[in-house]
Amino acid sequence: GIESAGQETINIIKKNINLEEAKEVVRIYKKNKISTLGYFMVGFYHESYEDCVESLNKAMRFGFDYIEFSALTPYPHTEIYQQILDKGIKAHWLEFARNPSPDYNIPGMHPTIPREKLDGLIKGAYKKFYFSPNFILKELLRINNLKALTLKSKSALKILFTK
Q1: What is the DSSP letter of 6?
Q2: What is the Cα–Cα distance from 30 to 21, expressed in whole angstroms?
Q3: Cα–Cα distance, 78 to 83 (Å, whole number)
Q4: Closest by alpha carbon to 15, among 94, 74, 80, 63?
Q5: Cα-atom radius of gyration of the chain, to the nearest Å?
Q6: N or C end of the chain, less CB within 10 A?
Q7: How far apart are CA 139 and CA 113, in angstroms?
């Protein structure tokens, strides 16, 4: 849960992480053959689109075995949620609470970047990471049975064809 590959964002959200130290931790884990998963978000209210692109690209260079990306979705009663309200950005949770449904999609909460644009950026980052020759080769070498091959193939197809 590093959250961001930008030190400025890390400081703003009070995550108390030094990104250089985090990279060293990933290196130590990998040296000891411990699989790593990095979790990153983009779309913090102070980030430009270019900042989001840069953050995702930096995240992919951490050396994680697997990576998870998402758009920031602030939850009620959190500090970042209050910061967004203070910036005049509409909070959509009340709308959801009044009319809950399983397919409700929280609209973007960024002042200038539409949610669809962030989602497209994230999808592109997934493809770039998971379809890199380096990642594919490592995964092929990890496969030791047909069930694993089937599972990984389904995951790849999901990444390729998810809107």
Answers
A1: -
A2: 14
A3: 9
A4: 80
A5: 18
A6: C
A7: 34
